[in-house]
Amino acid sequence: MNVLSEFKEGASIAFDAIRAHKLRSVLTTLGIVIGVLTVTLMGTAIDGLNRAFRESVSVLGADVLHVDRFSWFSDNRNSWMREQNRPVITYAQIRQLAEQMTMAQAVAPFTDFRAPISYQNRNSSQVFVIGTTEQFIVTGGFTLATGRFFLAEESAGGRPVCVLGSRVATNLFGIESPLGKSVRLGQGKFEVVGVFAPQGNFMGQFSLDNQVFIPVRQFIGTFWNNPSFQIQVRAASPDRLEETREELRGVLRKIRRLAPGDDDDFSINQQQTLIETFNRVAGTIAAVGLFITGLSLFVGAVGIMNVMFVSVAERTREIGVRKAIGARRRTILIQFLIEAVGICVLGGVIAVGLAWPIIFGLRHFLPATLSITAVSLALGVSVLTGVLAGLLPAWRASRLDPVDALRSE
């Protein structure tokens, strides 16, 4: 008898055994269902978290450098205290930087203030007012839904114009076009010249659509006459980002009059640093989470192994008869392995069926999807668990002496 015939015969006998002991098979499958379900949900949640994070930080721009008094990640409290004492970055320094940088595509100041905004009888109590220049449309990576961003002349002259985030525009105007309308922002009136397309949330917390952008000179005159600025610098070429970073550092040190031995009194942050830090933390969380959820799969595998040992003990005489009439050890081994794998695959299929509506619910919080890869992995894990759980009982069944087995009652 060839291997294919042995496999067909073993599968037939194995599935007959599963059907003959329905309750035991269902209870055994339950452990695998829980194990595969928890591993699948954990893997999908981790993948969704990674995807949500990458979508959030993509707004920072892979080729954009962000200069601030503070580092995005301070090593300790002392570092944070030192950064707190750094002198602010002024608009005059940013103008000098823009004039002296040779490897930057664009340099934009960035500062914010919270203020109420209103149009006729509609209002929003708190929006983020962003003071910047026309260069932000290059460094910020935002997309306009309608209208335009303010021009260089409007920025230099501090004209009372603004560009609304999509959420602000919807709250104030509904389906009405805001272009050309005047809104009251703080104590001043501003003409709406553009509206940004929806940008979503940053890190799941801060809404990028609840912002209003105005020329920085208008910001200084209306809201805050001496703000602390951040700077966004987009490299002329992504391939020369590190060279741009070094030039930026050197020019800033000169502008801020730092001696050669002095530490930098500013921090240059970038998207990649944030991603690397997140990957380290997420990797640790994923390892711990998958280990803990994997324990439930291990418990299910132990349960199947015990049931298979019971099945071998119950069918010892059957094994003796089959071996007496010529069944090989390999034939017996395949039969019991198929039975163990069949139980696990059944559990895997049920687990995937249960995972789908749960993951569909998770999509309200994370961009989680039950991909073909996840389904294949779940079923693959089920098969592997069945093989590992059934190998020892199947091997023991195949090694039984036919004479001793026939004497079994």
What is the arithmetic mean of pLDDT? 83
Count of strand segments: 12
Strand order in the sheet with the most strands? 2-3-10-5-7-6
Kindly provide the radius of gyration, computed on alpha-carbon positions and rounded to a whole number of angstroms.
33 Å
Q: Roughly how much helix do the residues carry, as a percent range?
A: 55-70%
Which stretches are poorly predicted, pLDDT < 50 over at least 5 residues? none
Q: What's the helix-strand series?
A: HHEHHEEHEHEHEEEEEHEHEHHHHH
The CA-CA distance between the termini, in Å, is 29 Å
Sheet having the most strands: 6 strands, mixed, barrel
How many H/I helices?
Answer: 14
Tally of discrete structural domains:
2
Strand content: 15-25%
Structural class label? alpha+beta
Query: What's the shape?
Result: elongated
Account of the 3D structure:
The structure is a single chain. The protein has 409 residues and is α+β, with helices and mostly antiparallel strands. It folds into 2 domains: 3-56 and 276-407, no CATH class; 87-265, no CATH class. It is 57% helix and 18% strand. It contains 14 helices and 12 strands. The strands form 2 sheets. The chain has a 6-stranded mixed β-barrel. Helix 4 packs across helix 9 (241-255). The chain is elongated, with a radius of gyration of 33 Å. The two termini are 29 Å apart. The model has no long low-confidence stretch (mean pLDDT 83).
